[in-house]
Amino acid sequence: MSSRKKVLLKVIILGDSGVGKTSLMNQFVNKKFSNQYKATIGADFLTKEVIVDDRIVTMQIWDTAGQERFQSLGVAFYRGADCCVLVFDVTAPNTFKSLESWRDEFLIQASPRDPESFPFVILGNKVDLENRAVSAKRAQQWCQSKNDIPYYETSAKEAVNVELAFQTIARNALAQETEAELYNDFPDHIKLNANDNSRNKDGDNCAC
Amino acid sequence: MWVKPQEVFLKTALWDCDETSLYFVLQRRKGHGKSRGLSSLLVGTLDSVRDTKPAPFRILHQTPNSEVYYVIATALTEPEIRQDWQWLFENVCPTLHSFDKEDEVTDFVCCKINSIIATEQDNFTEDEDTITYKNVDNDFHQRFGMPKDEKLVCYYSCSYWKGKMPRQGWMYLSVHYMCFYSYIFGRKTTVKIRWADVTELAKTNSLLFPDSIKIVTRDDVHYFTMFLKKNETYALMQQLANIAMKQLIDDKSGSFNIDKELLTKLSKNVPKKPSFLKRDLDAKKQSNLYTLRFRLPQNEKLDGTEECTLWTPYNKRHNWGRLYLSQNFICFDSRVRNLVRLTIPLRDVHQVERADSGGTGSSGDSGSILVTTSYHTSFLFGNISDREFLVHKISELLAKLPKEKATLAVARKEDGEKGWTSQPPLMTLFKTNQTSPIRQIQLKKVKQWEDHMSEVGRGVSMYQTTAGSELVVNGIPESLRGELWSVFSGSILQKAQNKGLYEKLVNEALSSKNPVNDEIERDLHRSLPEHPAFQNDVGISALRRVLCAYALKNPAIGYCQAMNIVASVLLIYCPEEQAFWLLATICETLLPDYYNTRVVGALVDQGVLEELTKAHLPELHAKLDELGVMKMISLSWFLTLFISVMPYECAVNVMDCFFYDGAKVIFQVTLTILDINRDKLLKCTEDGQAMQILNDYLEGIYNDEAVALSTEPRTADRTIRIQDLVYQAYRTYGGSVTSECIEHLGLKHRLRVVRHLEDSLERNTLRALQQDKLLDPNELQELLSAIREELLWAKRVPCERLEAPYEAYRLDYTQFKTLFSALSPWAKGDYAEAITARMFKLMDNDDDGFVSARGLSLALGLSCRADAQRRLRALYCAHAPPLLSHLELRPTHFTDTGEELATDAISFFDRSTSGSKVGKPDEDTKYSYIENPPSPEPGSSSLQRSISEVCSAGNHMDKSTDSTLSQSGSGGIGGDSQRAEAVRACALSGLPSSLPSTPASASPPPAAPPLPRAHFLQLLAALHDLTQHEPVLYEAVVLAGTLLLQLGELNQRPLLDREISQDSLYMAAAAKQPHFPVMDPNGNPTEDQDKPQPSPTKDIEPSAEYLWSITLEQFLATMLAQGPIEEFFNEKVALLPQLEALRHRDRLQSIS
């Protein structure tokens, strides 16, 4: 396995409507916060290059619609995901409660090769707000109960922990990706070959 | 009876000739009357193959040198046919000799008979359904075991491919089923398919099954061929399948309303169809097309159409086309597509007069009418073939027009201050800074439109012409958008029909607490944040009102993200109320089902788009399919009408066309965008890349004629003028991507989407049910299909809800009973009904009279799979107050047999405890007989009712009486339902998955209340009944029961000492409820005599029974101490055989 290979990581952000998925993505990619986003319909995505352990990695971050009635439609976007980010709003307990169902739904729809070890990251967003309702401890406990999912408390508005969280996301996704390379039958190998090609041509070709 | 002359070739094959003359033959069907034997069987077979029952007598016409025979009369009886024969001889035969040629004879005879039929039909009063149809309907119900209310729509002759052999027979199409029946040489073939199970319906043509209709269900594929009217059959099948699918989507209960008004419909030339329902369906289809074409309210029913011309003053021409008439509108559409279209609301019609020839022009010299509206515009229709009829018809419709309703206005007065004001178009309040070139362009456009409208008129009844379409394609000027959108979309008609409704809805919606409102609130600032109007409370409040009012108006949709985005754009251009009606029109007419709880419509159109791409851009389709991009783009593009993907000022231009031409525009534009980017897309290697290309392209679309809304500098390169894009879309796909074609493809994909949704619902339900770990997965699978079957049979459909997947399957008591009693070992004995009802109550978490799929699976799991302790606990809980309330202990509502048995059991146990006292229990039994004279078993419906009565009445009563037992002292209003919840939780405790309502906390498991004596006796009686069949077991139960009864009395004492004050409370309550017939404490021998109470409270004896108690722990310990009982309740009962039996039962027999 070459260590300097350019890799594309697909990251899916899930969570209830209004927890700040779009804001987190934009804070991470564009380093800015705006309260002028439209509700996401279907899905949207941004890409960013990051360096993880000396490797240049392109993160392709997919932001999805949160409303319940769109939940089952995510399957189109889940395909070939390397990491799944589950977001909840620390001021809204309901959004925390639905994490379980988002996780289940993702595992069923995306059906990763090894559901037990598929990398998830949980983000408790909006910690800048006063009226916090889900304690860090409670969230932490839940994450531990689910195979020790990494948990971060973030604020997309004040850029708290966003960078750190996405670093972890990239690292865990990369680990998953690297592992996947070992398996030829993994459906994603087409994508990997594609990246090989673009690498051969020109490094910047794949800035998608 | 004379029949329309029909050619037949085989004169004698199946018929015996009774009489013969030169031109006529009277025949008798073989096998009828005289002949028997083989020929009879043969003819019987043929009869079943050809039609249900041909009349046994007929008269043929024939000429000596011709091979061709004509049937001219048929009859069921010999005298009838003789009468016709006689008539022929007397009236027709003499004339026939005067003809020279045989052809002439035949022509004359046919003509004569036809005219007789015609005259007879005039006198014939039109019945709802013809006689033959009624016979067939009868056959249909018998052959397929259909419930009485299943309506046959039509039947067709066809062949069914069973294996490699086609079977000739009849296809019956009814509202819920497609059936096929054939009977050939004693071999019967039947097929019965429910429309709701159909997953694919197609016309195919393969070598194996030439020219056939293919029907695919989950389990099977069927081919039907050799239709006489294949297209008609197929169209009807499509329509029925569609109705079934729409029901699955909407859960509008399966009732199908026949439109009786059709009978009175005056239009002529309605071809006679075998079934009234068929006509009704045809009419519905017509009306549907009509309302879609003219954007009329959906409940509009087409009355009739007429070929005629419309005089268009702007070009001084008569245009041929068709005039459509319905209750509220006169419409016209030109024969040349898009030439001219017109809608006149009858409400506006001031006068209808016959315009006489002369001045109006040469071609319109006959049959012209002039329609004048109250706005002093007139419309001239010419060349009407039957003018009098039309004028008569219009005036009739005018007379029937409902008077303007004033009720809503009254309601408004009562409200007084409403606290909000309806906003004008927000763009008038929040002006964008137009640069002068843009202002010039806008002014120029306004001028163009003003000129255009001065020619074609303004408002609803404007002539919609080709010139108008061109103007629309170029983009409507901002100041006219609101008005024209409302006119084109037809929402202006909705608004006019529902005066005051918006205001009412807003007032109601804003004053009510609704979870939907919270969802809306969250998205208000995420709708069109870039527009100044929505950076301000004025715009936000208006948006809130529109969305909340709509959610209230249409709960099936409620609020779906994307509606906020669309609505905010509407509010920019339209006054608030108009925006509301535009939104309603989009959600209900233009994009039906798009925004419902499963966004079915959008998913269907996703499939349609894929299909269209495949047809028009096959190479690209293959690529995008491989990348999985198709599914990604369509949702956001379609649901937000491009607003969320294109710059706002461009997307509104697409909306101009969308309102003018309907949903097809979205497809056309989408295909064009894909086409333009084809080369780039073909080079993509992964989905993100393709999405990026499309996103960049969409963001780069620009519109020089309007102000860009986004304040941020444009990052994307300019790609195409929106006007060019729209123009190209029309030019390339205008002809091929039509509404009809989309509608047609829609059905196919609706079948697919609905199946997919059902499958995923089923999958999710199974997954959820498996967590209870009681039943095996394959048992659950079978159970779920049994539930589905039961629901569909009851004409209900699983209706997905947001709480949990299994909540979609809601069983009422009848359905629960059917399944539970067929499957559970607890529902076998004499006591079955009572136990079933109690289990139902136990599982009915919210006391609404419905149990979810999980409830049933738990009830079954607990009764046949759980360990003895849990099984007994479940039984105990089912008999615990408040679930089993005092009211239920009164046997009047329940089965008398069960109650008698209970009394038997009671007397038995009493005997065993009291030893020698035999006389008393007998008295007791007698007493109960007197109180409850044996009455016929109450029907399930009354039982159902009694359950709900019990829910309400029982609760209120228990509150006072049982508070002594609960000892919690809470006794609040919600105390009772809390206790019920606790009992239910107790029954289910020990399951791996806790109830959704109870958070996974470390609180101790909920405890069931102790059982009062009466409840306990019921429980014992139930146990007694369950164990009756095995003596050893029975003895064990008797023993345990005896012990428990004694234990209960021991329990009684400390309570008596303690709770005197609460007893007096009970006394007061008991005085209000004087009748507890069976369990009246005074009639209870054990209490009074055998065991004199040593306690000082003996004087308040009546309450003693309620203090007698057995706790769950005591009950379990005593019961489980008995080996046979533990063994019996540990026995794992297999469910699959029962499920199998259930599947193969004969429904009609099981009902009767």
From TrEMBL, chain A:
Q: Which Gene3D superfamilies match?
A: P-loop containing nucleotide triphosphate hydrolases (3.40.50.300)
Gene Ontology biological-process annotations: endosome to lysosome transport; phagosome-lysosome fusion
**Which is an annotated GO molecular function term of this record?**
GTP binding
Subcellular localization is given as: Late endosome membrane
| Record key words, sorted | GTP-binding, Lipoprotein, Nucleotide-binding, Prenylation
A Gene Ontology cellular component where this protein is annotated is: phagocytic vesicle
Q: Which PANTHER family match?
A: RAB FAMILY, RAS-RELATED PROTEIN RAB-7A
Q: Would you tell me the protein name for this molecule?
A: Ras-related protein Rab-7a
UniProtKB/TrEMBL annotation, chain B:
Positions in coiled-coil regions: none
The highest taxon in the source lineage is: Eukaryota
Supply one GO BP term.
system process
> SMART domains recorded for this chain?
GRAM, TBC
Q: Which InterPro entries match?
A: EF_hand_dom (IPR002048), GRAM (IPR004182), PH-like_dom_sf (IPR011993), Rab-GAP-TBC_dom (IPR000195), Rab-GAP_TBC_sf (IPR035969), TCB1D9/TCB1D9B_PH-GRAM1 (IPR036014), TCB1D9/TCB1D9B_PH-GRAM2 (IPR036017)
Matching Pfam families: GRAM, RabGAP-TBC
Disordered, as annotated region? 912-979, 1075-1100
> Has keyword Magnesium?
no
The beginning of the lineage is: Eukaryota, Metazoa, Ecdysozoa, Arthropoda, Hexapoda
GO molecular function term, any single one: calcium ion binding
This protein's species is Diatraea saccharalis
From the Swiss-Prot or TrEMBL record, give the protein name. TBC1 domain family member 9
- CDD domains per the UniProt record, alphabetical: PH-GRAM1_TCB1D9_TCB1D9B, PH-GRAM2_TCB1D9_TCB1D9B
